Structure formats: C-alpha cells, structure tokens
Amino acid sequence: MPEEELFKSEEEIERAAISDALRDAADQIESGDVTLVSGANERAVRVPERARFEVELERLTDSETGDQRYELEYEIRWTK
Q1: Is residue 66 part of a domain?
Q2: How many domains does the chain have?
Q3: How far apart are CA 36 and CA 80, in angstroms?
Q4: Which of 10, 26, 75, 76 has its CA 20 to 30 A from that of 52?
Q5: Nearest-5° angle of CA 19, CA 6, CA 76?
C-alpha cells in the first residue's frame, strides 16, 4: 500500500515545551478532533473512539561515527 505523508513537523526544542505539546495533543486526542499546525501547514483529523496505540523506544548507532541516539515514539493507528 503506498504511503502518503499528510503532515510532518520536526524541530529541536526544550523538554518542557515537548511536554506541553504532548499535553495539548492528549487533550485533542481525548476530544477526538486533532489539529496539527506547523508554520503555514495545517491538517485536521478525527481520531476514532478505539485505535491502536504503540510506544517504541529505540537506540540507534550511526554506522560511520558510532554515535548513538535514542528515539521515543508514540504512534496511534486506525483504519477508515
């Protein structure tokens, strides 16, 4: 199935700002109506009452430098 990226935002910000964004996201998810905004890009979506929720923590190593980084991902999935 081909993927279509509808919205993406990535920036480096303070931990406190990340937690504020996650609290805001939680409130929107609870209401069922989520609006994603980054600059002039805006996307709204309705989250169903039941959805699949995944939490993933990975440690990745750069093959050239050996530097390690961590990725903590929260993912919500559903079908129409």
Answers
A1: yes
A2: 1
A3: 19
A4: 10
A5: 50
